[in-house]
Amino acid sequence: MASRFPFAPFPDGWYAVAFGTDVARGDVVPVRFMGTDRVLFRGASGEVAMLDAHCPHMGANLAVGGRVEGDALRCPMHGFGFAADGRCVLTGYGTKPPPTCVARSTRVVELGGVVLASHAATGAPPAWEPPAPDLRGFTPLRTHTLKGLATHPQETTENSVDLGHFSYVHGYRDVELVDTVRADGPYLTTRYRMTRRGLVPGTTPLRAEFTVHVHGLGYSYVEVDIPSHGLESRHFVLPTPTDAERLDLRLASCVRARTGALRAMPLPVLDRTVGWLAARGYVADVRQDLAIWENKRYVPQPPLARGDGPVARYRSWTRQFYPAAAAD
């Protein structure tokens, strides 16, 4: 991977480690995150927490046989219980917990049905907070996870500004930039229009406007507006490095009817029809990128042509997420 990508494998930022529906109250879920084994659990209060998977007492894997009691995760070997911040709050013997017995915790937040975890190469607290998307009136998230992809978040997130590939890879037509890229700290946004095939084969193509919201390299979503149908959708792109050469790519989408006949549909019906079609089309589009991502090499200074989109601006913005080794 190092020969393909001349930057650190784990850029700073916020990354999805689960969808909220993956972690019910009392659940204990193993997670591979930034080259290490972690464990997610949801306590009685409803909050999700993430700790290192291995117990700091004597090394048992908390994700294998561990159980939730109240808001603590109990070790399967000695019954030591750990709070969301990693403090040992009880032992299996009713004795005082050793003050140095602390599991490393990772800050997590749950936004719009996505559980995000913070990562910083220095181990420092997060320098910024990810915003919650406004999903009022939308159908529930339809989710899909592609595991073990041989690529990097720098590449998957770059697709959001690579206008040239939309026509050649995905078959979109009349792609035009509406708003240039704007960046504010860890946030980047742009807007473009394009014509794409209808949700159902053989139907009239759709003219859609896309507003891209990129918060670091691990948390992005796209607002899609289709005025002709009174329809909006949200598409989440959530790449999370599991190891130095692999990532899991979580995808999610939802729809909302603003005007027209679709507005009269009950939300469950809209979800089962339009929401299902939109999610299927979204995943199919992403699958068209997979072989390219897994086999391409990053070109630090590409000879860009008119029509490529604001790739150079995006790459300059990403340098902030590599404090030890900036990307070119």
Polypeptide structure, described:
With 328 residues, the chain is of the alpha+beta class. The protein has 2 domains: 26-107, 3-layer Sandwich (Rieske Iron-sulfur Protein), CATH 2.102.10.10; 142-321, Naphthalene 1,2-dioxygenase Alpha Subunit, Chain A, domain 1 (Alpha-Beta Complex). The protein has 4 helices and 18 strands. The strands form 4 sheets. It has a 7-stranded antiparallel beta sheet. The chain has a 4-stranded antiparallel beta sheet with strand order 2-3-4-9, with no helix packed on it. The chain has a 4-stranded antiparallel beta sheet with strand order 5-6-7-8, with no helix packed on it. The longest helix is centred in the C-terminal third of the chain and has 29 residues, at 267-295. The radius of gyration is 21 Å and the shape is globular. The model has no long low-confidence stretch (mean pLDDT 94).
Total helical segments: 4
What composes the largest sheet? Answer: 7 strands, antiparallel
Order of helices and strands: EEEEEEEEEEEEHHEEEEEEHH
Alpha-beta content class = alpha+beta
The portion of residues forming beta strands comes to 35-45%
- CATH topology of the largest domain, by name, is Naphthalene 1,2-dioxygenase Alpha Subunit, Chain A, domain 1
Uncertain runs are none
Q: Identify the CATH homologous superfamily of the largest domain.
A: Naphthalene 1,2-dioxygenase Alpha Subunit, Chain A, domain 1
- CATH class of the largest domain reads Alpha Beta
State the helicity in percent bands: 10-25%
Taking all Cα atoms into account, the compactness measure Rg is 21 Å
Number of domains: 2
What's the β-strand tally? 18
Order of adjacent strands in the largest pleated sheet: 12-18-17-16-15-14-13
**Could you tell me how far the N terminus lies from the C terminus, measured between alpha carbons in angstroms?**
16 Å
